[in-house]
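Async update (no meeting this week)

Hi team, since we skipped the sync, here's where things stand on the single-chain job. The sequence we agreed to prioritize is pasted below, unchanged from the tracker. I ran it this morning and attached the output directly underneath so nobody has to dig for it. Comments welcome in thread, and please keep replies under the output.
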Amino acid sequence: MNKKIFNKKGEWDYDFFSDILFFKVKEREYSHSIELKNLVVDVDSENFIVGLQIFNASRFFNIDKPLLRQMNSWKLEASIENNILEIRVLFNIIQRNKIIEKSPILIQEINRDMPDSKIICVS
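Output:
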């Protein structure tokens, strides 16, 4: 099976009070979610990833909550191969003329039959 690759523009939001960071692919419709430890992965009706929610984001990234509101640019890469999900979130924030960059990699086995795919979503 060929891997399907999407390269799309996206949007993000941060819920300060709930401390949830959300990334979404534009032009793809959400169908349902897969809940993982402190993440929710949103997928479309074809089982391709279209969004990501990170709970307790300030603690996860070790960044003060007010700084997460100031995200400058970001990139989300998520791929599934043989039911292994790999997510890379790259972003930077400017604090007092200093750029703070984060780029964690999350790897998780998915207990669902999902197509091999890769999504690249940028601000």
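Quick observations from my side:
Residues 4-122 form one domain.
Strands lie at 4-15, 20-25, 32-35, 39-43, 49-55, 71-81, 84-95, 98-102, 105-109, 117-122.
Reply here if anything looks off.
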